[in-house]
């Protein structure tokens, strides 16, 4: 069908060059966007700190988040005071637009959880030889990961809640007993185990740690105000008009009073967040 | 839970401002990307023209495309010589990064389809009062479309294939007869009816015309080389090693010969396209 194969051949070579140029242009555009958004995110982080339970409300509103943590973790999700996702390219020119750092700050839960903030760095890796556990990996997985890159992370320390002592992997004395195995496996599925996730030991660490990291980076952090506002709207819809129940609904109480006082603020907020 | 409601109130007002600033920053970043990509797309358009059946192969490879057109349309999809999607913001500063123009060029099919190229412009509209048919629309649909905007388009003329005379809406003399109704409805579902789609008459024009436009703008055009390459790989996998069948597989024939001649070009292409 080709008039001359060399014509097609040159065209294919040219298309491959275009794909390279497009990938570079996309990275440059992404870096431009990162620099443009950074000051707005900084401003937003400071405002969010003033709103009680903001992160608990925003995270629990997202339909996917609960699939990555255990039900018992939500007590500790409620203790999250601050979440910040920063593209590494802002400080390190060696990094691509796809590398980022997630910082999570926990309030103290007396006698159970220590007040702490933990930062975890996520970088795109293309060297599949670094993957330590090859079990269940096909040659196509390797080829794809080598081409597209895959997310990796250094393990970081976090103080686990006291209530998790029995499933805390570092406190399980004997992992060989059925009981020990069971507790170890359970512990590896908690939100706290995610901080040790590396991306190099599939099946032997927190499951889908990369997907949870991407969820924070691509949805939970950039659109947190949208999720918070949706939750606010839901609460208002539920308790429409019966203010004597407000005392049982702190979130609702706050917002109702804010609305009385601040007029159409929250409607305004609703509208804007839809733009996301 | 708020220390003082005015604190929360100010925080909410500040967050609403942040959402505005983020929307503006996102549009600016998108415009920057558009300008960065434009020369690469122009270069790519010229190369694609040299590859026979490129668009037929790329479009039919996409899993969704076939959901928007009728099986009988594929004869005419095969006649597509060129597809170009251009962001309107490149030429008109009044346009947002979300407005675009799709140009499709058809080869002649003797005695059936005229050689022609048709350009259709798609713009984001926020004035829901312009929607002429409100049936099956909820107040929430209106609120959402007014906030997020919805896609609209001016109808454009295209010469329909002779073989479609019986279902060509403009040639159906009496649409009131059962036969006329049936043919009219069938005609409105062909790819050719999409060119008259406005987005203002839901239920009375080509169905999901906006989704098809977005499919061209967001997937089929930017990643066409990826789809073409996937199709090429599939054909090669199927006919691995039996070259006597190549004569029945024009696509395969071209590429096999190109590969023999051009060495690792097509592998190179495969690799690059995965970066998309």
UniProtKB/TrEMBL annotation, chains A, B:
<dbReference type="GO" id="GO:0005634">
    <property type="term" value="C:nucleus"/>
</dbReference>
<dbReference type="InterPro" id="IPR002164">
    <property type="entry name" value="NAP_family"/>
</dbReference>
<feature type="compositionally biased region" description="Acidic residues">
    <location>
        <begin position="237"/>
        <end position="263"/>
    </location>
</feature>
<dbReference type="GO" id="GO:0006334">
    <property type="term" value="P:nucleosome assembly"/>
</dbReference>
<comment type="similarity">
    <text>Belongs to the nucleosome assembly protein (NAP) family.</text>
</comment>
<feature type="region of interest" description="Disordered">
    <location>
        <begin position="236"/>
        <end position="276"/>
    </location>
</feature>
<dbReference type="InterPro" id="IPR037231">
    <property type="entry name" value="NAP-like_sf"/>
</dbReference>
<protein>
    <submittedName>
        <fullName>KLLA0C03047p</fullName>
    </submittedName>
</protein>
């Amino acid at each position: 069908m080709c008039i001359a194969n060399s014509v097609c051949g040159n065209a294919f070579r040219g298309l491959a060059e275009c794909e390279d140029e497009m990938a570079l242009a996309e990275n440059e555009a992404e870096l431009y966007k990162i620099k443009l958004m950074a000051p707005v995110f900084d401003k937003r982080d400071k405002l969010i700190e003033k709103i009680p339970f903001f992160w608990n409300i925003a995270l629990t509103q997202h339909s996917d988040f609960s699939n990555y943590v255990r039900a018992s973790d939500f007590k500790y999700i409620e203790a999250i005071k601050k979440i910040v996702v920063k593209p590494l390219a802002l400080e390190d020119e060696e990094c691509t637009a796809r590398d980022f750092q997630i910082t999570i700050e926990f309030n103290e839960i007396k006698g159970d959880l220590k007040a702490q903030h933990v930062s975890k760095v996520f970088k795109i890796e293309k060297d599949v030889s670094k993957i330590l556990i090859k079990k269940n990996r096909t040659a196509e997985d390797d080829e794809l990961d080598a081409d597209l890159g895959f997310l990796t992370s250094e393990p970081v320390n976090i103080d686990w809640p006291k209530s998790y002592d029995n499933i805390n992997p570092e406190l399980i004395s004997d992992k060989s007993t059925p009981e020990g195995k069971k507790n170890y496996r359970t512990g590896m599925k908690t939100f706290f185990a995610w901080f040790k996730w590396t991306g190099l030991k599939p099946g032997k660490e927190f499951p889908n740690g990369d997907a949870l990291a991407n969820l924070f980076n691509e949805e939970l952090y950039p659109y947190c105000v949208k999720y918070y506002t949706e939750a606010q709207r839901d609460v208002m819809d539920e308790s429409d008009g019966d203010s004597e129940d407000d005392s049982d609904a702190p979130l609702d109480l706050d917002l109702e009073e804010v609305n009385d006082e601040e007029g159409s603020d929250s409607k305004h907020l609703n509208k804007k967040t839809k733009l996301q």
